[in-house]
Design a protein that fits this description.
The complex is a heterodimer. By secondary structure, chain A is of the alpha+beta class. Chain A is built from three helices and six strands; from the N terminus they run ββααβββαβ. The longest helix of chain A has 9 residues. Classes of the chains: A alpha+beta, B alpha/beta.
Chain lengths: ~100, ~650
């Protein structure tokens, strides 16, 4: 099933299905989509940054842990360790087998 | 340029040992400045090798050649327009996949390059064996294994660099291929692009257009809006086909190529036991243990620096003031002598007794922490708290620095990636009570009013930081940002590189702060000699006396505080002729005075740092705002406390 990265348990691995969903600005995205505007993806610089760091659709990502008090996530991806802010991480959708 | 004078640029990810290689190449012949008009560090050096003179440029450590950060923009503009004779791409052999992603982008820029496969010893320890020959064959450029810290392979690397520059080596650099749908559209765009003049290679521009690169798009738009329209159409089509945004599709396919290549050239065997650096990582980022460890580390550093600093500072001060009699006999005690001593010498002494005892060890420890990898763990732990003041984890570092001195704090804002984050962090940084402010809080309020009042002032200060940070975060236009960073493996810092970084930072501090402190001392000394201080204090008296309820002479102390905040206390003692402030000021006056000093102005050196990083306008805005804020809060406090 598809879950935001933040929903994964520590040590769990998933495969990224999307890094550019219409999350917060969903309403505006939908509106655009209805108007036939091609841009129904929410691409900002940080989505770009995520994919530059290797978090692209189809990539395996393991959540190692998260910092306390709703802190950032520590993830393992493509052989290296990244810290990702929680808001960002909640926009990454992953497919996990449970 | 003569035919034995070349320019080589070092490019690569952060934390791959690039600056160590740079130091190995250039030794002491280096110069660190800024890229013109940008607050991005530019390290240049020269080296002589086999009769060649080679200028080496250390580009900032980046992950991609897009436009995410100023660093990325600077790097790619440099490579594409300045066209160095060669780019040495430093690659971490133990993190091939992430590193080759950048290599591929360099190949796309069609710049002459070689690859330095660095830290192969570390890779081996991690159980990663890289097939160099195969890598060379696939990438089509020379690949040289190196161990930067020990200097291994550096000579070979230089020899190869010369061979490539002199075209003694035939190379067929790889042209990364994308999927069929993307390639077709790239081809179409190249045909269109071949009709116009561009400073970048056509294929690269085509790819960047598909990646929705703002800068490239702007440039093409100027010459041919129809190409941009085509690119937009293509992007839409690709999004239809793949179900993801086009930039994501392109990046994702590039990574696909990368993982195929790295799969072919490396062999990984998992090490059997967990290495020490992994255990260290687990403990230092632990949700419970991480915080006490961090607190202990930060406190130890502060206590050590202040113990060392107070001692050496006093020693240096005694030494310099011991020179005064000699000075007096040479220059006499007339106006000239007084001006030179009071203006020039005391300015210098003031600078030295801050720079050497405090700033030097501060930077040294900062770079040790950074180089070892601990700083990124601290940022990870503190991210959440920093969010409360509208910043993110990385900002903890400049903020922490500012408790020592606001100047390195302001300069340290460079680690933030976007201009907006930098300004926000700098604003918060200038509100942090620095060591000199702490001296006043503790020395005046702590001693004569009570330690609980000193603590209250600290808490008020922190509360102001949180509130204003949040307001600024909401008010400042632009995208809010979040923490995304690599936490690279712990390693033993390379002392020579750390020492050099410290040295250059210290130089930067001296160059910026000293002239300001000296000039400021001069101006104030002249005012003093011309008997202008009292009239000036009288001009301020409606504010100081009527609004803040302070004695009129505090106006003079506050003027001196602009130079360095601890001078306010020293001046008060001089003006009152006593250090027992309880005799001359009421507790309320002391609290109000300290509150004002805490906030009223970034000292002159900090203003200098703000100007350097953000320009005059923003520096003045922050300064004026803080003066008004201090006066407002001071007046309110006075009224509340005297009810």
């Amino acid at each position: 099933m598809d879950l935001p990265l933040t929903e994964l348990r520590n040590g769990e691995t998933g495969v990224i299905t999307s890094t550019d969903p219409c999350s917060e600005k969903e309403q505006r995205c939908r509106h655009r989509a209805r108007k036939g505007w091609r841009k129904h993806f929410m691409v900002d610089r940080f989505t770009k940054r995520l994919s530059d760091l290797g978090l692209t659709p189809g990539t395996k990502v393991t959540v190692v842990k998260s910092a306390p008090f709703h802190g950032p996530l520590e993830v393992f991806v493509r052989g290296s360790r990244l810290a990702i802010g929680r808001g960002m991480a909640s926009r990454i959708l992953v497919n996990v087998e449970r | 340029m003569s035919n034995n004078h070349f320019t080589i640029a070092l490019a690569g990810n952060a934390n791959v040992g690039k600056s160590v290689i740079f130091n190995q190449l250039t030794g002491l012949h280096q110069h660190i400045g800024n890229w013109p008009g940008k607050t991005v560090e530019k390290a240049e050096g020269t080296l002589h090798f086999k009769g060649y003179t080679i200028d080496v440029i250390d580009l900032p450590g980046i992950y991609s050649l897009s436009t995410f950060s100023i660093e990325e923009l600077v790097s790619r503009d440099y490579i594409a327009t300045e066209k160095p004779d060669l780019v040495i791409n430093v690659v971490d052999a133990s993190l091939l996949e992430r590193n080759l992603f950048f290599t591929l982008q360099l190949l796309e820029l069609e710049t002459p390059m070689i690859v330095a496969l660095n830290q192969i010893d570390m890779a081996k320890k991690k159980g990663i064996i890289v097939d160099r020959e195969k890598a060379e064959k696939i990438l089509g450029v020379p690949v040289i294994p190196t161990v930067a810290v020990s200097g291994k392979g550096i000579y070979r690397m230089l020899e190869t660099a010369i061979e490539v520059i002199e075209k003694e080596r035939k190379m067929e650099p790889l042209k990364p291929r994308y999927g069929k749908e993307i390639e077709e559209r790239i081809e179409d765009l190249i045909i269109l692009l071949s009709k116009i003049q561009l400073k970048y290679p056509a294929r690269w521009v085509a790819i960047k257009l598909l990646e929705e690169d703002g800068e490239v798009e702007k440039e093409v738009l100027r010459v041919s809006p129809e190409i941009v329209a085509f690119a937009e159409k293509f992007r839409g089509e690709l999004e239809e086909i793949h179900g993801h945004s086009c930039p994501t599709v392109v990046t994702s396919e590039r990574y696909h190529v990368v993982s195929r290549i790295s799969g072919e050239i490396q062999e990984i065997t998992e090490p059997l036991k967990i290495p020490l650096r992994e255990k260290l990582h687990t403990v230092t980022t632990h949700r419970v243990l991480g915080y006490p460890i961090m607190l202990a580390a930060v406190l130890t550093v502060f206590i050590a620096i202040f113990t060392f600093g107070d001692f050496t500072s006093a020693l240096l001060g005694d030494f310099f003031f011991g020179l005064k009699p000699i000075f007096d006999t040479v220059l006499g005690t007339g106006i000239i002598g007084e001006l030179i001593w009071g203006g020039f010498m005391e300015g210098i002494i003031g600078g030295i007794t801050v720079a050497l005892p405090y700033i030097l060890p501060f930077y040294l420890i900062l770079y040790l922490f950074e180089d070892s990898g601990y700083l990124s763990r601290v940022a990870f732990l503190m991210d959440n708290l920093m969010h409360k003041m509208g910043l993110h984890g990385k900002a903890f570092i400049p903020v922490m620095l500012s408790f020592g001195c606001n100047v390195p704090g302001c300069l340290g804002c460079r680690i933030m990636e976007t201009a907006r984050e930098r300004l926000l962090t700098a604003f918060v940084v200038t509100l942090v009570p620095c060591a000199a402010t702490s001296v006043i809080i503790l020395g005046l309020v702590g001693t004569f009013v009570g330690i609980q009042w000193a603590l209250t002032l600290y808490i008020i200060n922190l509360a102001i930081i949180f509130v204003l940070g949040r307001i600024a975060f909401k008010a400042l236009p632009g995208e809010p940002t979040e923490l995304i960073m690599e936490m690279s493996d712990y390693r033993i810092p390379h002392m020579k590189t750390v020492a050099k970084q410290t040295w250059f930072r210290l130089q930067e501090f001296i160059m910026m702060a000293f002239p300001l402190i000296i000039a400021g001392s001069f101006v104030i000394k002249i005012a003093e000699v011309a008997n202008l201080l009292d009239p000036i204090a009288n001009i301020f008296s409606p504010v100081t006396v009527a609004w803040l309820g302070l004695p009129a002479v505090t106006g003079i102390a506050l003027i001196f505080g602009v130079l360095r905040k601890e001078l306010t206390l020293i001046m008060l003692a001089t003006l009152f002729g006593t250090t027992n402030f309880a005799q001359v000021m009421t507790p309320v006056q002391m609290v109000v005075f300290t509150l004002v000093v805490m906030l009223y102005i970034p000292c002159i050196a900090t203003i200098g740092a703000l100007v350097k990083e953000f320009g005059w306008k923003k520096a003045w805005l922050i300064t004026v705002f803080e003066i008004l804020l201090a006066l407002l809060l001071g007046g309110i406090a006075f009224r509340l406390l005297t009810i």
